[in-house]
Design brief:
The chain is mainly α. It is built from 15 helices and eight strands.
Length: about 400
């Protein structure tokens, strides 16, 4: 019935054009090839209109079995199949015998390939495929022969800006760390805090080098990035944002009379009495641990869980972000601050229904934490971000 419907609505030429744009034509490294236009670029490094007769016949011959006739892995079989196609074209009157003979003598030269040029967001596409297979029942976009399209949440303009920002920072960091024999990695996630739509994603510095998506799969200690959840738990427990804490060395006792002596980054202390909000704005470790202890470690741990983060074990060090999480988990948790305290679920497929998120903190608490975080950028530990 679908075939009859298409026949009534489209001409033979239009149907053929759609087929040529969608047909699966194998894989090169991590990139799945769909359509003859992409095949021309990936296998021969040319625009479709610039292919030779022999190259066009080779691509046409791959349709029957992209893996068996791959010019990358099965060069001899690909040449034989190309020559079969050329013979059929002579038989059906599309080309002359001398044209076919000349094309059959051409070597099948495969072009060099840079996967980064071909795919704008390879880590994002991999993640979409995984989510499609696991959750919605939609088959993989890359590995399926099905031509059904999957509409994603990716914003191409933001993705390009994200890639540029990552490249700029890596260039700067490489100058610092490469002389020491170190090579930094990277992850970036940008999402809409109201809907959870993932708008940009970078999962590593080079997809061809490593397909591990560090944005979704790499568990890392968030460190000071965790501190807003400590302060959110404190505000939710009734603690005033104007409450004063001393920025000075302090020893904390916990289970079985164990001791914990945190230090600020760099080891210095102002020895001053400061309002609680300054503890977050200036990322003061001792103040943050004291806030967590007075709030209750179990309450802080439960608050983190409510935000969608792994539940930390109730030790004083949890206040300094020692429990591992992925960048996507952290980004989704932060979105609740911008979303009036309502939790969101990250999603990469645009057609998926947006779930009504749970209210994890009061809107007033979300506003106060957001205001503190703005202070971090304006005159706190991240003020240099205003200049980049």
């Amino acid at each position: 019935m679908l075939s009859f419907t298409i026949e009534r609505r489209l001409s033979k030429q239009d149907i053929f054009a759609l087929y040529c744009n969608e047909i699966f034509l194998g894989q090169r490294e991590a990139v799945a090839v769909r359509g003859v236009d992409q095949a021309a670029r990936i296998y021969f490094g040319k625009e479709l209109k610039d292919l030779t007769l022999g190259e066009a016949a080779a691509i046409a011959g791959m349709i029957q079995s992209p893996a068996r006739y791959s010019p990358i892995r099965q060069a001899e079989a690909a040449r034989s199949r190309r020559n079969t196609v050329l013979g059929t074209m002579v038989r059906d009157g599309f080309i002359k015998l001398d044209q076919a003979a000349a094309a059959a003598q051409e070597p099948l030269m495969v072009a060099n390939f840079d996967p980064a040029r071909e795919t704008v967001a390879p880590y994002f596409i991999d993640y979409v495929n995984r989510q499609s297979e696991r959750g919605s029942g939609v088959r993989s976009v890359d590995q399926s022969e099905d031509t059904q399209a999957t509409v994603t949440t990716l914003d191409l303009d933001l993705q390009k800006l994200a890639a540029d920002a990552v490249r700029h920072q890596l260039d700067r960091l490489d100058g610092i760390y490469q002389p020491r024999g170190l090579r930094p990695q990277v992850a970036l996630v940008a999402l809409d805090p109201a809907t959870g739509r993932v708008l940009a994603m970078v999962g590593g510095r080079d997809y061809a080098e490593s397909q591990l998506n560090r944005a979704t799969d790499a568990q890392r200690q968030p460190g000071s990035v965790f501190k807003p959840f400590v302060y959110a738990a404190a505000l939710e427990s009734g603690m005033s944002p104007l409450r004063v804490f001393k920025d000075a060395p302090q020893e904390f006792s916990y289970a079985h009379n164990q001791k914990y002596r945190p230090e600020n980054y760099g080891g210095g202390f102002s020895m001053a009495d400061l309002p609680m909000r300054d503890g977050l704005i200036k990322s003061l470790n001792v103040v943050t641990v004291e806030v967590a202890m007075q709030t209750g470690l179990a309450r802080v741990a439960n608050t983190a869980l409510e935000f969608g983060l792994p539940r930390p074990k109730p030790y004083p060090a949890l206040a300094l972000g020692t429990t591992e999480a992925t960048p996507l988990q952290v980004a989704a948790a932060y979105a609740a601050f911008a979303n009036g305290g309502r939790k969101i679920q990250p999603r990469v497929i645009a057609t998926a229904a947006s779930e009504e998120g749970k209210q994890v903190i009061a809107p007033s608490t979300a506003f106060m934490i957001s205001d503190m975080l703005q202070g971090v950028i304006d005159h706190g530990t991240a003020r240099c971000a205003r200049r980049t």
